[in-house]
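User: Show me a protein chain along with its predicted structure.
Assistant: Here is one chain, sequence first, then structure tokens.
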Amino acid sequence: MAGATGSVVAVVPAAGSGERLAAGTPKAFYQLDGHTLVERAVQGLLDSGAVDTVVVAVPADLTDEAKLILGDKATIVAGGADRTESVSLALSALSATTVPEFVLVHDAARALTPPELIVRVVDALRAGHGAVVPALPLHDTIKAVDANGVVLGTPERVGLRAVQTPQGFATDLLMRAYRAYQGAGTADFTDDASLVEHLGGQVQVVNGDPLAFKITTQLDLLLAQAIVRR
């Protein structure tokens, strides 16, 4: 599969219900100071100057609303039952057109991600890394526990990172990882880099940014509101 030389497409899975946010609307469509989270996430990608096209996967019954909100900023596709299926559907939409050289996968809930972080990920891809994730060092002590809440051990946090998005990939590599995932059927992955790791691919970490936090709870929302209103 040949990619369009140098081109970058960002996929934004935004079909989740956002139950933990308890905002009464799908999380990506929550308005933060007059702009939805998905609109802010897409604008950040475009503001980076490193992304050529954005594809957003939304709930099937909200495709028209998404088109009104985003206009010509993004291509809208109907998402799936979970994040992985939504990304897969967006990738399928890509394969029907010119395939880009690189794909970024970005959470709509990381709506305040600085454009500079997006540029760092794309720069690392262009430097030759097939898979790139932004991440931050951990400050809290982490405990591994069993199903009953009993501590099994305390991992050394110096070698641990909290991973953010956008995660970037050479398109061929990400598509191979998704085909392998669909073939496995039962595997459970929490991010796209995990699929690449499962395939045996190497993932490079670049510096993340505290502003790329995921807006998941009411506390996150309060923080986001304080940031955009400062």
